[in-house]
Amino acid sequence: MSRLVVVSNRIADLHHEPVQQGGLAVALVDALRERGGVWFGWSGEIVDRKEEAHVGQHGSITTLSLSLTKKDYSEYYLGYANGVLWPLFHYRLDLVQYRSSHFSGYNRVNRKFAAALMPYLKLDDTIWVQDYHLITFARSLRNLGCRQRVGFFLHIPFPPPDILAASSNHAELVEALTAYDVIGMQTFLDVNNFKRYLTDHTDADVLENGDVRIGQRTIKVERFPIGMDVEAFGEMSQRITEDVAVDTKRREVLGRKQVIGVDRLDYSKGLPSRVKAFGRMLAKYPEMEKAVTFLQIAPPTRAAVNAYSDIRDEMEALTGSINGKYSDFNWTPIRYIHRSVPRNKLAALFRASQAGFVTPLRDGMNLVAKEYVAAQNPEDPGVLVLSQFAGAAEEMQEALIVNPYDIDEMADKLYAALTMPLNERKERHGALLGKIKRFDAKAWLVEFLKVLEDSGEETSRLPKSRR
Fold first, then answer.
1. pLDDT, tens only, 72-127
2. Quick one: which of 157, 422, 438, 444 has the most CB atoms within 10 Å?
3. 183, 219, 176, 197: which is closest to 466 by C-alpha?
4. CA triplet 131, 134, 140: central angle to 5 degrees?
5. CB contact set of 52 (below 8 Å; sequence gap of 6+)
6. Backbone φ/ψ region at 91: left (φ over 0), alpha (ψ -120 to 50), beta
7. What is the rounded end-to-end Cα distance, in angstroms, of the chain?
8. With the CA atoms of 376, 378, 380 and 386 taken in that order, what torsion angle do they form, in degrees rounded to the nearest 10?
């Protein structure tokens, strides 16, 4: 079994239990421990000038991290990755802020990362690169002589060709992606969008078996829906903390239900529309007044980007408006928490909530939807209300699927979730639980690595333009 090298924008904190960081970290850390390997990425530090890579050892796992200069952070991370790629890949052309210097910085940092990793590679390593920050990373490795197998997984959506083509660098981005041997995406829609781009804008051929022929090379582009550690999260949800237990008992005594949403404060998550939908439900169904509360947990993210400060202001205004209209001395309809909450407490809160409200405007997968299902009591489960534009909706059709742009539909489906009979709740939950168990984090990792390591073409057979 070859050594595994994981490359990501940030590396996991191996000083803490990975289960606190989510299913992805659990799966990757377990694979690295089993096979031995390297986890490479940004340290999270911003410095005045370039520093040497920091090497750490955690049993069979070597961590290799680089700091970013202020210029690198501004151009690579804020400027291009999150100012261009994030909105572009989430279909938000109106929020793209393109500057040529930012794309140069993005490529520069990918080259720096590749140069820093190259001396630590072994000839039979399997390299797995994660997410949109590192699209040009394999090309940089190839230009330094890397001939190992290199796979890439995109955790966010891949946009349709016409949206991608609005980017000034769309051709170079896709050309750089084809330096990978296997490209994994969350949904069939994402895979089809990528292959449609190749068909419409390049000389690549999509073969009958789905592989892509580019010059003398063949690459695989396939769907690998990411999952979570279902059993571990379900067990965690049953270890209820004292404050959650007290709050739950209070609601039980008062006969009140709870709707929960957990999202980073990001414009892709559809938070303002979700708050409006909850308010619309209270207006359309007056019997829900004092009968339900909405707990929205929205930790801050990328505060330096203007779009995020704008949505924070909008959320505070909306929650204040609805609470001002409906609150009573012993009931506040919306509880809005703008900070991080420990993962073990989130699990308990999911279990104590009668509806999970997961309505992104566009999302790669959305593991919150799966976590909500995993946390439920099978004998008295809550109901998941899920956006049709979350990648999870492709496999989780037993949820109540909604259009996140339709406030009335969301209000009606939320009401249906809160009033659904027990037999239907159990039937829907059982089907969803079976699916997330089959497509858990371990299955995602094993299947991707099997395809990467079994795929046929030698990576040394590169087009001259990449040598």
1. 999 999 999 999 999 999 999 999 999 999 999 999 999 999 999 999 999 999 99
2. 157
3. 176
4. 150
5. none
6. left
7. 28
8. 50
Helix axes 188-201, 170-177, angle to 10 degrees: 110
**Predicted structure pTM score:** 0.93
Query: Which residues are identified as catalytic?
Result: 155, 363
Name the least confident of 4-13, 274-283, 417-426.
4-13
Q: What's the CA gap between 74 and 102, in Å, rounded?
A: 8
Distant-in-sequence, close-in-space partners of 459: CB < 8 Å, separation ≥ 6: 142, 146, 147, 148, 149, 150, 181, 217
Tokens of 66: 């680089």
Instruction: Give the Cβ contact number of residue 149 at 10 Å.
Output: 22
- For residues 67 and 42, the answer to whether their CB atoms sit within 8 Å is yes
Q: Which residue has 């896709």 as its token pair?
A: 174
